[in-house]
Each structure stands twice: as C-alpha cells, then as structure tokens.
Amino acid sequence: MSKRKTPSSENNTNYDFCEFLIELANYERNVNRNIYKYNAYRNAANTLAAYPTRIKSGEEAQKLKGIGAKIAKKIDEFLQTGKLQKLEKIREDDDSTAINLLTRVSGIGPAKAKELVDANIKSIEDLKKNKGKLNHHQLIGLKYFEDFEKKIPREEIKRIEDFIKTEIDELDSEYKITVCGSYRRGKAESGDIDVLITHPSYNSKDGSKKKSHLLKNVVEVLKSKKLITETISLGDVKFMKTCKNHSEGCVARRLDIRLIPQDQYYLGILYFTGSDLFNKNMRAHALEHGFTLNEYTLRVAGEPVKITSEEDIFDYIGYPYKQPSERN
DNA sequence: ATGTGAG
DNA sequence: ACTCACATA
Fold first, then answer.
1. pLDDT digits (tens, 9 = 90+) for A125-136
2. Domain with A298 in it: what CATH number?
3. Which nucleotide is nearest to A5 (CA to C1')?
4. Which bases on strand B have an atom closer than 7 Å to a protein beta carbon?
C-alpha cells in the first residue's frame, strides 16, 4: 500500500485529465502547502471521473461543478498538446522532486519534507547525515526506506500469521486473531501486515476499564520471539512496528496490530479488510437504507445493532454478501 | 491545545 | 471520512 492515494481509475473515459489534475493537486498540497488549491483540483478530478462521456473541450468541462476557467484552459492545452507546461516544469523542479522523495519515508509528510528541503536536505543520503532532525518514527522510516517499499509475498504473511497465532495461543488461548488488509482479500502480495486481535474480556461497554495490557502482552511475546524488532508507536488499541522474518533474507516489514473490543470485532474486520472503495460503496448503501456504518458500529436510527459475524452486517443492511476476495 | 502523520 | 498516536507549545 502506497502512501499517496490514487482515487479515480477504472472505466473512466476522462482518466487522463484526472491524472494530471491529481498530480497538480498533490503538488499544491505537498510543495506549496495550499490545501485549498489541493481540494479544488481534487474536486475537479472527482467531477470528471464521475462524468460518463469523454470531455471534448475546456468549454464543455467548464459547465461542470468545480471546474472553472483555469482548469478549462488546462484541459484545452492538454487536448491540443498532450501535456501541460506547468506540469513539465514541476516535474523538473528540484525542490518539488525532493519533497516527493522525502515524503516516501514513513513518518515524513508534506510539512516535514518542506522543512527539510528548506534546510537543503534533499536526498536519502542527506537525511542519513542529518538524523538529528528526525523523530523516532522517521528514523525507522529512513532505516528501512528500501524495505518498506517492497511488497510482501502472500506466503510470507501466511507464515507470520501462523507464527503469531501459535505464540499468542500459548500466551492465552482466548485471543482471536485475524489478518486483514489485502492479504485477506486474497492478494498475492501486500504492502503491510494488518492484524486484528480481540479478547472476550474486552468489551466496548465496560468503558473505563483499562485493557491496554491485552495489547502490550501480545507485543511483549512477539518481541521476545524476535518477530517484532522495533516499535513505531504503541497506544492502548493500536500498535505499529516492524518485524523481521529471518527466513526471508531479513527484509523489515510493517506490522500493524490493533486490539478491538469483542462486540466490535466483526465491524473492525470488515473495515480493515477493505478495499477502501468497497467500504465506501457499502457505507453509501447503508446510508441509503437508513443505517450508519463505521469502523465500530452499525446503527439503525441511532441504535447500535448487535453483530455476531461479518455476514450479519451484510444481512442487516440488505447488501449481498461478498467474499473478501470479491471486495477488490 | 494544536499540528503532523498514518491508516 | 474519521480516528488514533505522537510531538510540540
């Protein structure tokens, strides 16, 4: 999974326009720190992505909501020349490419990247010479810069899954463990490993009770067994770190472990299995039928519905059940 | 309390 | 879209 989101893609006759608009949007956000222009370009891209027919001129596009004279002009230029002067310049610009590079380091976002570039730190090499400017998370991102961009083969995740299940079962057999994300959707490779755990003693209703030890204990075991080698962050419910798999030539991986209250487990699994687009569509369907669906609860008229399986959620909102592999 | 970053 | 963790002030 990459850090940047690329939304509008398939069966979109205006895909090429959307592409350059999104590139411009990212430039405005990451380099100029102008969130308004960013939103304007994103809006325009979404409008064009939803438009059923091929746009033939800027004039035609300008009739659409969110597209004004400036974007219309760019569409004309793109139609006539196949490219944009402005984008060509941006792609050549030193600071702009440096910011795009630095932003690929986990923990470095647009703000930090800009700060670094302003201090004339523009490459991974420069970063290594200026570790003092980085926080804990960013240091790990730098250390494993290459590793974290490598995809994780399905078989490796499977081995890690089995390992975690075995070790945790030994710790406390009442834990339930599910590996979600694209792995659960059956993909041959994934960007990271997303593990959801729950325990019968942890319920969203017993509120104030601190249950963080349930997550910490798991992390401790996996640390002692050398699966977890570094911790990026460790909160009460969410935990991210890197793990090394000895048999895989020591590539560091991102492992994300979340503790979910038992009564919200299936909603969590649904949410973290994705895909993003699938979730979006399913939530939209829920809304149309008077439900609200999020990561934690399914509600009818504000009242939470009791869920005891993933199928339950589909049943309640009248959405045809889809196997994880059909949610791509 | 606020900004940042991740997912 | 929304929430969480962390680092500052």
1. 999 999 999 999
2. 3.30.210.10
3. B7
4. 3-7
